[in-house]
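Annex B. Sample input.
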Amino acid sequence: MTDALVIGGGPAGLMAADALLTAGRAVTLVDAKPSLGRKFLMAGKSGLNLTKMQAMEPFLEAYGTAPPVLTDSLTAFGPKHVQAWAEGLGQSTFTGSTGRLFPTAMKASPLLRAWLARLDGMGLYRQTRWRWTGWDRNTFVFDTPDGQRVLTPRVTALALGGASWARLGSDGEWAKLFAQQGIALSAFAPSNSGVRVTWSSHMTRHFGAPLKNIALHAGPKMSRGEIVISERGLEGGGVYSLTPALREGADLHLDLLPDLTPDAIAAKLSKTQGKQSLSNHLRRRLKLSSAAQAVMREFVPNVPTDTVSLAAVLKAIPIRHAGLRPMDEAISTAGGVAFAALDDRLMLRDRPGVFCAGEMLDWDAPTGGYLLTACFATGLWAGRHAAEFNRP
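Annex B, continued. Sample output.
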């Protein structure tokens, strides 16, 4: 008999283990990979964005129509709690100009090391290279380097991740095990994903160039954020946040001058062009970069010359794309365990004593700190309630 079992060593699983250990439970944590927190470390490779420091009402709006248990989890462990938690681990933080919270070190590795040291000091027992292969009645079966192992826990927290970045551990294979048990699931779908564009050859020299101070529109949704022209299409926060609308088939349009009205643009363009080329005219009058102009010409081959029509084009360039990047390349995924299969403690209704947390749950959120905060919050919520279940 194992007291408390946690399967999954990402942020949600570690937070569940933290809560269980704090409550005095003996915790065994297992992970299929050789080390813990691999996707967490990748998330911090270019600067670990822990959360978004803002009031709870706008913070919660980022999660769309969230079920009550997700809202309760986030309210119990929101932005201020994330900041206090990180600093409690000895990691100073700072808030950027957009409200995003980062550790001063910027990287995830110092925070993860401090966190694991804390958990180890509390008595965490961990096993890596243990892959969960399913239930055998009330036991959990694992493939391990030493052969098959079976654990019979009093309580279990599952934090198995979504279905993107399989090489880091989030392969979504656990969904097959849930389906075999008749547990309600929502199909996985890419979230925070780039779009695929087959560029013409003249775009090659612009690969890697950013487009700043722009807006993107997909159906009723609008996003202000930087995007990057890549060999495979468009990447970056500006397009990632529109993934839900793009999944539904909404058209994508680019506004190169969101701070100017069409009339204001036309007025600027009406200044004498003289002998200078249209490219130079756009650069001088509107400060449009060569990359921005290249994108315009890519999707509007016959650029109008009259100022009114050209202004309209610059405000709504139609981005013809071949859909979202493959799901495994997406930063996160929507879909997973349906909230209808869970109670208000995040416990599976059909499997008492088994709690779920993190990206394996069917919620969706943009980048900018929202993803990590929800993983922390649901891990803590599941762990705290698991700690009160079936105490020895």
